Amino acid sequence: MNVIKTLNQNKGKTLFSFEILPPLKGKRIQSIYDSIDPLMEFNPSFINVTYHREEFVYKKREKGFLEKVSIRKRPGTVGICAAIQHKYGVITVPHLTCGGFSAEETENALIDLHFLGINDILALRGDPVKTENTFVPDDKGHAYAVELVQQIEKMNEGQYLDEEIKDPEPTNFCIGVAGYPEKHYEAMNLNLDIKYLKQKIDAGVSYIVTQMFFDNQKYFDFVEHCRQEGINVPIIPGIKPITTLKHIQFIPKTFHIDFPDELTNSLVNCKTNEEVTKVGVAWAIKQSLELKEKGVPCIHFYTMGKSENTRNIAKAVFG
């Protein structure tokens, strides 16, 4: 079973899924289980696990020299996905990015996932690291998500980069990609962004998960636009509740997303994180109920490693 088969078998029913962050380095796997356990009563169809590439900082050394040091704050996704799938028996979807990987390293990661029986991938270009103004691919890696999709699809056809592999077994990865109802921040306009999205679909993508949005009409318009361009795969809406005062400025600035007037008018009166959470959860419930009523294939929640708010939303929508 994979994501697309699950979606196809449940047409007419809106499924529940969510995304988690790997724990900070030094934390045990139990911290992941603690965030998943409260959400299992809603029978998630799949769980996504984000990937966080290494970052670089410069540390002062003797005589004024600077040393470039690699730092990885969170562990990789392969082991985490295997642990989740083994413990809960639920489909796990690791994020695989272009950034920080050569094509050979990507192949090795895919081989490990295939070996472990993890057959779903969310293929992403990835964001620039903090020390880069723009995304910089690995010298021997991929610059665009479509290239990553093409590599995965070739492995699905039994074509590996390592020519010394004898009788290579075709993989069977189900590939998803991201979609942006308000366009990717680097795209010149939404039309061009959807054109590039169509290229990924044609390369072998089975479904789309959208970036968070707070105006459902933008999601509905995005789906209609995609259909007009010949994109007919399931498009799963991504929902994130606003829960802190920091989110009010951070989300629009970082993700280039607009808040609707009704939500904005409620948020500007909030003085504490608790007040923001109350508004944000209520808005996410309102969004989710409308999306479910409209028959979306699945609602995907961005938990950021905190399950309480998502549980409250899911209880109101799926309980």
Describe the model.
The protein has 319 residues and is of the alpha/beta class. The chain has a single domain (3-318), classed as TIM Barrel. It is 40% helix and 18% strand. The chain is built from 11 helices and 10 strands. It has helices at 3-9, 30-36, 77-88, 103-115, 145-156, 190-203, 216-228, 245-255, 261-267, 273-293, 308-318; strands at residues 15-20, 46-49, 55-60, 66-71, 91-97, 120-124, 174-179, 207-212, 235-239, 298-302. An 8-stranded parallel beta barrel has the order 1-2-5-6-7-8-9-10, surrounded by 7 helices. Strand 8, helix 7 (216-228) and strand 9 form a beta-alpha-beta unit. Helix 4 (103-115) packs across helix 5 (145-156), helix 5 (145-156) packs parallel to helix 6 and helix 10 (273-293) runs parallel beside helix 11 (308-318). The longest helix is centred in the C-terminal third of the chain and has 21 residues, at 273-293. The two termini are 25 Å apart. The model has no long low-confidence stretch (mean pLDDT 91).
